[in-house]
């Protein structure tokens, strides 16, 4: 690939076979201009990527082969309302993906127009909240995201809003965690069980997407690296979802000992790389890690039939986090208080 000064990006267009062979033949000539390999960080890199295989990278990476912090998005052609979603000039309208200052710039024909969440008329704003779990397939300014009680005028405004989705060739193709959390025909008590113990969902994910538990851990590592190094927020959302799924799969702890033993190791090295200020931000705003890990550690403590090595490693991990970050894993989270279970949980 070569640098394109016009697009300020790497491209393989205009590169002949002869040029490729000439560059390959002269690779050793580049050594004099390169610095030494940082072997002191090699061990750290291995601990963050040891479950990632070439096949996994090929399957998950964007079709373009490039991972970028901001995905390009296009307007969907199936928007309802006054025809906002139809193609213009026989093609989808492309949005540059820059999301700064509360708006986006949309390219349409020869000009640009700014796309914001602000509606005409009443001056209301729609946040454009994403639909899904953030695998690069996010949707914005969702049609049908209104409350049933709103009046028809407000409803019409919202259905006239355009829908956006990430361009497939620029989006990371992570495995989609099944939304169906319980077997078809499950009783209300079984639905309640599967909504609290996500082992069924974990098994469904592994059956449909992974041939070995290492592939699931590799996807967890790849999602973390895409966020940590490339600042891809969708990757962070997927990482959180996988962590939550693994931490809340209580029944699977006894059947997948190797998976969870290695999961603890993977998470240990990942948390060591997160800056302290970012870590504090998570604790103060959403408590995602403390709440999720609290469930995991409780399952380890209460599991009488679990492998003793797994339990010992998990509780050592808990003690290390408590000492390093002063987290409290002893009190029960409010979200696990008695509640009404929706029998349509999916």
Automatic annotation (TrEMBL):
Residues 84-133 have a biased composition (Basic and acidic residues). Gene3D superfamilies: 2.60.34.20, Aar2, C-terminal domain-like. Coiled coil: none annotated. One of its GO terms (cellular component) is spliceosomal complex. Keywords: mRNA processing, mRNA splicing, Spliceosome. It comes from the Eukaryota. It holds the Pfam family AAR2_1st. Residues 74-157 are annotated as: Disordered. Residues 2-62 form the AAR2 N-terminal domain. One of its GO terms (biological process) is spliceosomal tri-snRNP complex assembly. The keyword Zinc does not apply. Belongs to the AAR2 family. Component of the U5 snRNP complex that is required for spliceosome assembly and for pre-mRNA splicing. Interacts with PRPF8 (via RNase H homology domain). Component of a U5 snRNP complex that contains PRPF8. This is Protein AAR2 homolog. It comes from Geodia barretti (Barrett's horny sponge).
């Amino acid at each position: 690939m070569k640098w394109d000064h016009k697009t300020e990006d790497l491209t393989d267009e205009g590169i002949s076979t002869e040029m490729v062979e000439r560059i390959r033949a002269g690779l050793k000539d580049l050594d004099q201009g390169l610095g030494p390999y940082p072997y002191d960080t090699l061990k750290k890199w291995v601990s963050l990527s040891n479950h990632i295989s070439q096949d996994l990278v090929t399957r998950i990476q964007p079709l373009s082969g490039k991972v970028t912090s901001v995905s390009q998005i296009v307007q969907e052609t199936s928007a309802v309302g006054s025809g906002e979603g139809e193609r213009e000039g026989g093609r989808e309208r492309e949005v540059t993906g820059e999301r700064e200052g509360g708006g986006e710039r949309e390219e349409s024909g020869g000009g640009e127009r700014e796309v914001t969440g602000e509606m005409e008329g009443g001056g209301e704003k729609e946040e454009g909240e994403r639909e899904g779990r953030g695998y690069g397939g996010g949707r914005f300014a969702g049609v049908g995201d209104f409350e049933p009680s709103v009046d028809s005028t407000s409803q019409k405004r919202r259905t006239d809003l355009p829908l956006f989705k990430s361009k497939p060739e620029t989006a990371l193709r992570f495995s989609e965690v099944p939304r169906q959390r319980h077997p078809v025909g499950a009783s209300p008590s079984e639905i309640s069980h599967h909504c609290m113990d996500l082992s069924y969902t974990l098994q469904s994910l592994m059956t449909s997407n992974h041939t070995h538990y290492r592939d699931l851990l590799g996807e967890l590592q790849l999602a973390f690296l895409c966020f940590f190094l490339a600042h891809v927020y969708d990757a962070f959302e997927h990482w959180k979802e996988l962590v939550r799924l693994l931490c809340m799969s209580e029944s699977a702890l006894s059947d997948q000992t190797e998976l969870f033993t290695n999961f603890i190791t993977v998470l240990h090295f990942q948390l060591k790389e997160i800056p302290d200020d970012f870590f504090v931000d998570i604790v103060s705003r959403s408590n995602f890690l403390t709440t999720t890990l609290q469930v995991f550690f409780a399952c380890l403590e209460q599991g009488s039939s679990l492998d003793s090595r797994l339990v010992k490693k998990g509780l050592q991990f808990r003690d290390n986090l408590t000492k390093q970050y002063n987290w409290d894993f002893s009190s029960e989270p409010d979200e696990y208080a008695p509640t009404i279970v929706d029998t349509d949980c999916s």
